[in-house]
UniProtKB/TrEMBL annotation:
This is GTP pyrophosphokinase. PROSITE patterns: HD, TGS. InterPro entries: Beta-grasp_dom_sf (IPR012675), HD/PDEase_dom (IPR003607), HD_domain (IPR006674), NT_sf (IPR043519), RelA_SpoT (IPR007685), TGS (IPR004095), TGS-like (IPR012676). GO terms for cellular component: plasma membrane.
Length: 580
């Protein structure tokens, strides 16, 4: 449905055009949300329009068309009226004379709070850290109420859709910021409908030729619609026979999904196979009956059937997948799911939201990751460090591991038993002495994999060794790093914290000397940070420690640094909180 929204043409809008947009918003909201509060929606529009009056977008349209479009996206996602009101007002406090106090008086604390969550901190009072702090503020707000993040993502989606009016450098900068932070955030929350639209838009900006070429590949033989219709007709009698009502929808893949497959070097046919979704109006059992109908109509390709209904993916995705020899004996992918399963597949977390934006569903917790990040951000005052860590965290693939107590814990890929212990409980981390992974004793530096079963062994009693300094080198999560450091800070005397600091300094000095020999120096730690990350070290300290411990050669490291700095221009951090 977002795709349809996206392709709608945006001809310049006048006053009549505006009221048509408002009517369409009202209609969508009524259709998608049972207890829609239309007077509230209209009031938010009235005030938003009044405040933005006279402001124009780069396209020459009245500014209010932007909040309207953002809110239309929110309405199509089935969000509640409070969220929609905040959507209509989301840029007022940032860009008009309307204050947060007035907004609170007019609309109440909830709407005001949501608008505040997506309002950028100004450069005047925050200076260089404004961007980093804006993102932190957004994440803190989303941790309390995930609807704030949905507004931010809808805002960015519309800004990306209308990026054509901006200069090429701005386009690239905004697209990169979207790719680095907002797309991973959408992914973490399971907002796949928004995520894939954003991915396609970023690809269209960054690689326009590739995008066009993939478009042709996806169009295939050009008769896609006719072939889908033929498949639909062929399947209908079989579905009737098993008494299942199902809508048969064509779901071509997204450009980005083809792009990723090509980047991975996987071979592809001349055109993309047909890809159908059977949206079953009924129960799980009806899904299996519908699958039977599909397999009765076309011969299944062996080994391609997957049952994600009986075993949902950890993001709660449920569907039956099969590939059959479809029309003209060409392979055709078919997915079978109920409409509720479809909603979760497309909207993830917001398919399970209660009226106040709180999660209604108990299951593997998608917000665990966010909670973890929030715990950590509360303890760091350094916004640059927070951002760095956020970007690392977002760049990492997530895995789900199981503890022997039956807990499920979401961790970044290659996290260690140390990370697991600290993410469960600080006490568990401090007392950690060993770990079994899938029944075998492993080193505590061992990287964990998706689905691992981990048993943590802890020391009992008052006397225990406490964390080792080596853990700092392999632990991946910020909170393990932080808690290990805190432990050392509290045990400075008997644990040789000073010795650690000295070793770090020694490593850094060795590296500086090696650079100096090569007539080079470093003005910032940024290249070190990047190189450290490439080599698998959490931060610069860990890298320096490895140098001082003789695990890395200072000379070789200096050569690599120079090579890296000379070849790749440093990219500055890109704002996520762009409002176009
Ligand atoms: Mn905006």
């Amino acid at each position: 449905m977002l795709r349809a929204f996206m392709t709608r043409s945006s001809s310049p809008v006048d006053v009549h055009g505006l009221s048509a947009l408002v009517d369409s918003l009202v209609r969508t909201h009524r259709a998608q949300y049972a207890s829609a509060d239309i007077p509230l929606l209209r009031k938010a529009y009235r005030i938003g329009e009044q405040m933005h009056r006279g402001q124009m977008r780069k396209s020459g349209e009245p500014y209010i068309t932007h909040p309207l479009a953002v809110t239309q996206i929110l309405a199509e996602l089935g969000m509640d009226t409070t969220t929609l009101a905040a959507g209509l007002l989301h840029d007022t406090v940032e860009d008009t004379s309307y204050t947060l106090e007035q907004l609170r008086a007019d609309f109440g604390t909830e709407v005001a709070w949501m608008v505040d969550g997506v309002t950028k901190l100004d450069k005047v009072s925050f200076g260089d850290v404004a961007e980093a702090e804006t993102i932190r503020k957004l994440i803190v707000a989303a941790g309390r109420d995930v609807r704030v993040m949905v507004i931010k993502l809808a805002d960015r989606l519309h800004n990306m859709q209308t990026l054509g009016f901006k200069s090429r450098p701005s386009q690239v900068r905004i697209a990169k910021g979207t790719q680095d932070v907002l797309i991973p955030l959408a992914d973490r929350l399971g907002l796949y409908a928004l995520k894939s639209e954003l991915e396609d838009l970023v690809l269209g900006i960054m690689e326009p030729e590739m995008y066009a070429e993939i478009g042709e590949y996806l169009d295939g033989r050009g008769d896609r619609e006719a072939r889908v219709e033929a498949a639909r007709r062929k399947l209908a009698p079989q579905l009737r026979e098993v008494r299942v009502a199902a809508e048969v929808v064509d779901r071509p893949r997204h450009h980005y999904s083809v792009y990723r497959e090509r980047s991975a070097g996987r071979p592809a046919g001349r055109h993309d196979p047909l890809r159908l979704v059977l949206m079953v109006d009924g129960s799980e059992t009806d899904c299996y009956a519908a699958l039977g109908a599909v397999h009765n109509t076309w011969r299944p390709i062996p080994g391609r059937f997957k049952d994600f209904i009986a075993s949902p993916k950890f993001n709660m995705y449920q569907s039956l997948h099969t590939t059959v020899f479809g029309p003209d004996h060409e392979p055709m992918d078919v997915m079978v799911r109920t409409s509720q399963m479809n909603r979760i597949a497309e909207f993830g977390i917001i398919a399970q939201l209660g009226p106040a934006g709180q999660r209604a569903h108990k299951g593997p917790d998608k917000l665990l990751w966010l909670t973890r990040l929030l715990d950590w951000q509360r303890e760091t005052n350094d916004s640059a460090k927070f951002l760095e860590s956020l970007r690392c965290d977002l760049a990492d693939e997530q895995i789900l591991v199981f503890t022997s107590q039956g807990r499920q814990v979401l961790l970044p890929l290659a996290a260690t038993p140390v990370d697991l212990a600290y993410s469960v409980d600080t006490r568990l981390g401090d007392r950690l002495i060993g770990a079994y992974v899938n029944g075998r004793l492993v080193p505590l530096s061992r990287g964990l994999a998706d689905g691992d079963l981990v048993e943590i062994i802890t020391a009992e009693g008052g006397d225990y060794p406490g964390p080792s300094q080596e853990w700092l080198l392999t632990a991946k999560t910020p909170q393990a790093q932080l808690q290990i450091s805190q432990w050392f800070a509290g045990h400075r005397d008997d644990r040789g914290e000073k010795a650690l600091a000295d070793r770090i300094t020694a490593g850094r000095t060795a590296l500086k000397a090696a650079l100096h020999q090569r007539d080079r120096g470093l003005s910032t730690d940024e290249p070190l940070m990047r190189l450290g990350r490439d080599l698998g070290y959490r931060d610069v300290d860990a890298l320096c420690l490895a140098v001082s411990d003789g695990k890395l050669d200072a000379g070789q490291l200096a050569d690599r640094l120079i090579d890296m700095v000379d070849r790749v221009p440093l990219t500055p951090w890109h704002a996520v909180a762009e409002s176009a």
